[in-house]
Each structure stands twice: as C-alpha cells, then as structure tokens.
TrEMBL record:
<keyword id="KW-0547">Nucleotide-binding</keyword>
<comment type="similarity">
    <text>Belongs to the small GTPase superfamily. RGK family.</text>
</comment>
<dbReference type="GO" id="GO:0005246">
    <property type="term" value="F:calcium channel regulator activity"/>
</dbReference>
<dbReference type="GO" id="GO:0005886">
    <property type="term" value="C:plasma membrane"/>
</dbReference>
<dbReference type="GO" id="GO:0005516">
    <property type="term" value="F:calmodulin binding"/>
</dbReference>
<keyword id="KW-0342">GTP-binding</keyword>
<keyword id="KW-0112">Calmodulin-binding</keyword>
<comment type="subunit">
    <text>Interacts with Calmodulin.</text>
</comment>
<protein>
    <recommendedName>
        <fullName>GTP-binding protein</fullName>
    </recommendedName>
</protein>
<dbReference type="GO" id="GO:0005525">
    <property type="term" value="F:GTP binding"/>
</dbReference>
<dbReference type="GO" id="GO:0003924">
    <property type="term" value="F:GTPase activity"/>
</dbReference>
<keyword id="KW-0597">Phosphoprotein</keyword>
C-alpha cells in the first residue's frame, strides 16, 4: 500500500484499508537543528515510550500504528526535509505529499520561529485549495534559560496560521506522544467534517 499511497496525487489521499485503519502521511518541516530528527526518533521508538512497534521504511521514513481515541491510525512520518542531495526537489515533493504537517521551530532560536512562518506561507501557496492539518511545534522546551520565543508568541502565531500549537521537548520526551496523537486528531476532524 505504501508505494501506492506515495504516488497518489489526489487531495483525498488518506488511504483506508479494509479493516478501517487509516494511513496518514505526516511530514516534518523546519529549519535545520530544531529537533525534527529527534522527534522522529522518538516516534520510531528509539527510546520507546509508545505502545506499538515501528517499521523503518527508509532512512528518513517511519511507520507506526497508534491508538488514538479508541481508533487505530497508521502514521507514516517523513523526515527528509533537509536531505542534502536534491534538496530543492525533495522540499517541493514534501510540500505536495503530506496529509498533515508538523512545522517545527526551536524555542531557543528566533530565526527558526521566523522560518516557520515562511514555511506556513509556502505550504499555503503549494496547497491552496486544501485545508491541510498543521501543528506548529515549539521544540526544546526543556531549555528554559535559552528561551527566545515565548509560549504566548507561539500560540499567537498559530492563531494567525490557523493551526494547532504545542511545545515539546524531544530531549526529555515531553508532549511528544501528544504531538503525534494531536496530528491524527487534526486529520480526523477534517475527514469527519468532509463526510457530513
Ligand atoms: P533537525 O536538524 O531538525 O533534525 O534536528 P536534530 O533532531 O538533529 O537536533 C539538533 C540538535 O538539537 C541535536 O543536538 C539534538 O540533540 C538537539 N535537540 C533536539 N531536540 C531537543 C530538545 O527537545 N531539547 C534539547 N535540549 N535539545 C534538543
Ligand atoms: Mg534532521
């Protein structure tokens, strides 16, 4: 199913299997060094705190089935935003293939926060007609003394972006499970409202 879903270009690309399980492609984007791969590693269960197994589909792709609100969902997480080779092509591709996005910045790096706004605009341009679920993620919340972006600023930015907001720490694994559950909920909310 994976290759099939990868090549799907329709906006209704969330695939449902016969068992009723749904597959969601979630893409990590954001400046280098903000903690995308660290979040992906937690998702992949390198330090296992979640309750199911993970398949590593490639260097920068992970698949895991999560139970969220009593319903299972398989998340395919893509962490290829900064692939050095063919980076531009990959970034264009990333902008097209996600069912949902995690736009990550570091609370210790204001430039990465500003970059997040740029990425939001880029995403909106790339996927104009779609209401894509996005979570703005302020990572490194454990580094309290180095904070450059306040919680209030992050929250306000998410309001402007019309997306959800969460602060996480990959280092101490704070809110990481909530982040991945949250993105599943966001995709479902849109799916459910489409069905009505
Ligand atoms: P990426 O470039 O966005 O994939 O970022 P990485 O996951 O490679 O992380 C960059 C650096 O930040 C690494 O040294 C990580 O150990 C560190 N890092 C990532 N997340 C956190 C976090 O939540 N807290 C702290 N203190 N460091 C983090
Ligand atoms: Mg990385």
């Amino acid at each position: 199913y994976y290759r099939r879903s990868w090549s799907s270009e329709s906006s209704d690309s969330v695939i449902s299997s016969e068992s009723g399980n749904s597959y969601y492609r979630v893409v990590l984007i954001g400046e280098q060094g903000v903690g995308k791969s660290s979040l992906a590693n937690i998702f992949a269960g390198v330090h296992d705190s979640m309750d199911s197994d993970c398949d590593v589909l490639g260097e920068d792709m992970y698949e895991r089935t999560l139970m969220v609100d009593g319903e299972s969902a398989t998340v395919i997480l893509l962490d290829m935003w900064e692939n050095k080779r063919e980076s531009e092509w990959i970034q264009d591709h990333c902008m097209q293939v996600g069912d949902a996005y995690l736009i990550v910045y570091s609370i210790t790096d204001r430039a990465s926060f500003e970059k997040a706004s740029e990425l939001r605009i880029q995403l909106r341009t790339a996927r104009q007609t779609e209401d894509i679920p996005i979570i703005l993620v302020g990572n490194k919340s454990d580094l309290v003394r180095c904070r450059e972006v306040s919680v209030a600023e992050g929250r306000a930015c998410a309001v402007v972006f019309d997306c959800k907001f969460i602060e996480t720490s990959a280092a101490v694994q704070h809110n990481v499970k909530e982040l991945f559950e949250g993105i599943v909920r966001q995709v479902r909310l849109r799916r459910d409202s489409k069905e009505k």
